[in-house]
Predict the structure of N-acetyl-gamma-glutamyl-phosphate reductase.
Amino acid sequence: MSVLKVGIVGGTGYTGAELLRLIAGHPNAEVAMITSRAEAGVGVDELFPSLRGYTDLKFTVPDVSELAACDVVFFATPHNVAMKMVPELLAANTRIIDLSADFRIRDAKLWSEWYHEEHLCPELLAEAVYGLPEKKADQIKDARLIACPGCYPTSIQLGFLPLIEEKLIDTSRLIASAASGVSGAGRQAKVDNLFTEISDSFKAYGVSGHRHLPEIEQELSEAAGSDVALTFTPHLLPQVRGIHATLFSEIRDPAVGLDELQFLFEKRYADSPFVDVMPLGSTPQTRTVRGGNMCRIALHRPQNRNTVVVLSAIDNLVKGASGQAIQNMNLMFGLEESAGLNGISLLP
């Protein structure tokens, strides 16, 4: 197969930088153009010196007619940007992988409730495939439009899915307590993101409702075949990268042992190259997934009571965003699912 021509819209943020880093080592893809209105004319390696020697591209103003010449376009943009350009790109037979939230929620009214504006192309919501490869690989392969999952939703869904699919837990009272590094807030100047504000501190936020909640409930409900109710509390970690999710659920049949649950998870993810079900008693750490596309999962059942605790750790910028987007691209174009994503996580 010829090398894929990739376009990136919104290349100056952290997810855009990660797309550049990962595609630079991809054997079957190359970035043909990268856009930024604010940095138009600036060399990519000027803004990201780590990419010196890997690209000679300059940022350009986004132009749909030029982007349409690409095989696939990634949107690494805030919400409400992709939906303004996607219809025209699809009409030109360009495939789309959107890392924003524009197409994750299939109900346009619900999307508007959480994002406080009208969706501009609700007719595409039913077509968009939610890009969690471990759940929807077959649909991803034939998709024109991928809605790449959020970072919290990725770590939480991978931890709950085997239990929900086998109807082993009470889905009316799921709990997820998850913490993310500050890069999850994006590359923007905000007081709350300053080093002196986050260092040596730990806090919850979005407790009354976080925008990732509806997509998590949507996808878990689909897996369950009925409505799922999740209490989700995110936290801010005083570190750059990583998400650690602690997931709580009540098992329906107390006779089901922890070893049986371990076998279930190992079987469920046996063919998933980027899910590592760790041995019983393990506690995954964010530093063991930093820079890689792996999700590490471990199971616990404290005091052998009815509460199952699943621990899930990912890099929010890789498996939680750009790495997962490339995993989707690989599936869309019939490439090896792990192409360009085999790098080992950084430790220490």
